Amino acid sequence: DQQVKQNSPSLSVQEGRISILNCDYTNSMFDYFLWYKKYPAEGPTFLISISSIKDKNEDGRFTVFLNKSAKHLSLHIVPSQPGDSAVYFCAAPRLRGGATNKLIFGTGTLLAVQP
Amino acid sequence: GAGVSQSPRYKVAKRGQDVALRCDPISGHVSLFWYQQALGQGPEFLTYFQNEAQLDKSGLPSDRFFAERPEGSVSTLKIQRTQQEDSAVYLCASSLEAGGRSYEQYFGPGTRLTVT
User: Fold this and answer.
1) For chain B, which has fewer Cβ within 10 Å, the N-terminal or C-terminal residue?
2) Which residues of B touch A89 (CB under 8 A)?
């Protein structure tokens, strides 16, 4: 059962344009979401997060939007740069008695920003 | 400061061989996680330590997988009698706090295990 879904395996955009990466989730108990970015042969690095009490969080060129009623979140990158080319993972922490914040990841979206 | 390090970065094992993967978390981080990432998939949780205590091992796929963190810092993931389906990237992550709202995890570069 894939609780966090990223239905687009890849996305290609032109440099300077907007990149929009989508993520859907099925568990309404999730109350926090994170985006990670991964370059080849490196571990994922934290990018931005959002709590379910908000519907938007912005950090520089990166903005995450959360639509709780649709169980959907999206990551916007404006303007996109070639260095943004990477795999992006959406993730949610699965709480278990408050002792384990293990992350449930989506399958990732490969973003390619063309110069 | 130093991030999470893992060794070896690459490991080729023959089927049936035992392997040991090492993780050095960020100094002072209480929580340590192991994840397995198969090709084309997202990381999947294996096990979790809070200091030296292994509080969750629900993601370990079989009893051939064993993890330890005896002194609450360095951790080792051991796989006995490796099988081809064990081929994956094994990621270690640490976070400063335990439980609560400390969701942000810092990942190491991973160990790519190939079982032939």
Assistant:
1) N
2) 42-43
How far off is chain A from B115, nearest CA to CA, in Å?
A: 18
Which of B48, B104, B109 lies nearest to residue A102, judging by beta carbons?
Answer: B48
- Please list every residue in chain A whose beta carbon sits closer than 8 Å to the beta carbon of residue B95: 101
Q: Is A16 exposed, middle or buried (0-12, 13-18, 19+ CB in 10 A)?
A: exposed
A16: left (phi over 0), alpha (psi -120 to 50) or beta: left
pLDDT band at B1 (very low <50, low <70, confident <90, very high): low
Cα B42 to Cα B1: distance, rounded to the nearest angstrom: 27
pLDDT tens-digit map of B37-89: 999 999 999 999 999 999 999 999 999 999 999 999 999 999 999 999 999 99
d(CA A53, CA B109): 32
E strands, chain B, in order: 5-7, 10-13, 19-24, 31-37, 44-50, 53-56, 65-68, 75-79, 88-95, 106-107, 111-115
Which pair of tokens denotes residue A78?
A: 């404006």
B26/chain A closest Cα distance in angstroms: 14
Instruction: Name which of A42, A91, A100 is nearest B55 (Cβ-Cβ).
Output: A100
Amino acid at B37: Q
How far is Cα A11 from Cα A38, in angstroms, rounded to an integer? 15
Dist CA A47 CA A34 (whole Å): 7
Q: What is the pLDDT of residues A12-29, one digit of tens each?
A: 999 999 999 999 999 888
